[in-house]
């Protein structure tokens, strides 16, 4: 029970610590203001103070509420209307934290590599990886949509919208440059 | 008035130019598709479309986004009614009567009621928008910074108090949004705030990156954790729309009117959007409807009320955007972004500086509503087939559009890191039940609120009471406080009533002393 309450209070604790740190940072904002005028630190300090106050309230509430069943108390405005359908026994929704972690890692890897690999290579690899992580197993669709989709996006954004997408560095840039030549992108 | 009609007529001419009409149709179809897909929200859809408008002229760009916005409030109803899959949160009330009606074998008629609701609600709101925008802009010209700050304060408070869920969490979300908006070099003193020595943060964090990350990427991560379950498709081949008879339509006239009014008013409030309008309107129907006792049993009023409000909220939300430069919702924030990208600042002056663009947008709303209903009537069967697409594939492309949207804004890979960070933040918000909308509204409205607050403080010698002592700003601040306190009071009253009912129930069940003696 106590652990449960601490768990519920944790996000507010993190926010409280962040609030204090940001207030400290706000105190260090350098500026020159005429006497009697409020400075650029005033607005953030007001907001941080409100954030800290809300976090403290969140912690107190999390620590003093007995169980999550009391959560309806937290809801000031719950869904205004209930589903009039008769309640049916619902199994707890299955979750896949492993997939989520892989998805986030793939996304971060894409951001880290897009400048090195160039848009086309990084994007097709990412799209293919994402669909596989997402438990889709139609390989023909995965590879065709991954590659053709990347080519289409490259064409549209570089040729039509004139966005200079990352070309990549050697030796990967050779692929992008060749594709650009084929698409008539200068 | 003649002047307005004259400009509107020119606006219609602009809309019917080939490229603008093409943009309108593309916007309508994309909006309908986005609304049908449960993983894609209306705001996400408009966000993802923005980079595709970079190379367009301002009029087709605005027309495309507005068309997406309006049609995005309609098509989610189809999947709610047919498959019990709400395409958007705003379509949840349609499950109660729409789906129930479909189960009674009246799916085609339920779709017909939806179509008429979107059509009538949309047109009423569009007419109101055209009639009211110019006068409101004239009033807005007399506003000073305290009034603007009061309006923004009202908007921020409304989104927190109307949004549902925990009030504390909503406030925390809003404060984080306001803090994100304060990152970078400030406008008044040129001082660096919360940049932590990172160069790109000196320019601030673009609200687009926050929106795309928190709404788009965060939602994809959340669905990925649930394993990307595609919605089951049943009976798509039998999808058709049957319009109600004129006599039936006339019988529900008050519901149409109440729904449209609710939608326009909620739309006008900065921060409140189609979802809130839809719930509020259903609630109003439960209180004032002719057949309020039968709501939830599959009656047309339960479809008309939420759908009329959802579509009419578009016209309402565009008014503060055009007349004051204050985006009323996530989607209008993107439309504001499109205006700014083309060097146009919406506000009271825009009627004098760019009437052709404003009235083309207004006219496109009328044409868009008609077009949306025509496409809906003839092509619903084809469009709902998009549900057949595997969710993993759709989500992969959503993520790519997120990346391209964020990258194209500043051509900087660092923005992709910010986007990924806000994607993770958006997921964490969802996981720990912090609403995302206040965060995003905080980022969008934060700079405007700060500028107006600072200017007021400088102009009035740091006298914060000025917000309450000037008649207009004071009234708006009072409204904001009522908006904040009302849900708290209502909740307390409801809790007390529930407790009393429970107590009475317990007493009734407990055997009294005489019963005990008898037994």
From TrEMBL, chain A:
It comes from the Bacteria. The chain crosses the membrane at residues 9-26, 100-133, 139-162. Residues 15-166 form the DUF1468 domain. Pfam families: TctB. InterPro entries: DUF1468 (IPR009936). The keyword Transmembrane applies. Keywords: Membrane, Transmembrane, Transmembrane helix. This is Tripartite tricarboxylate transporter TctB family protein. It comes from Pelomicrobium methylotrophicum.
From TrEMBL, chain B:
The keyword Iron does not apply. The chain crosses the membrane at residues 21-50, 62-87, 107-136, 148-181, 261-282, 321-345, 357-380, 392-410, 439-460, 472-489. Keywords: Membrane, Transmembrane, Transmembrane helix. Residues 21-441 form the DUF112 domain. InterPro entries: DUF112_TM. This is DUF112 domain-containing protein. It comes from Pelomicrobium methylotrophicum.
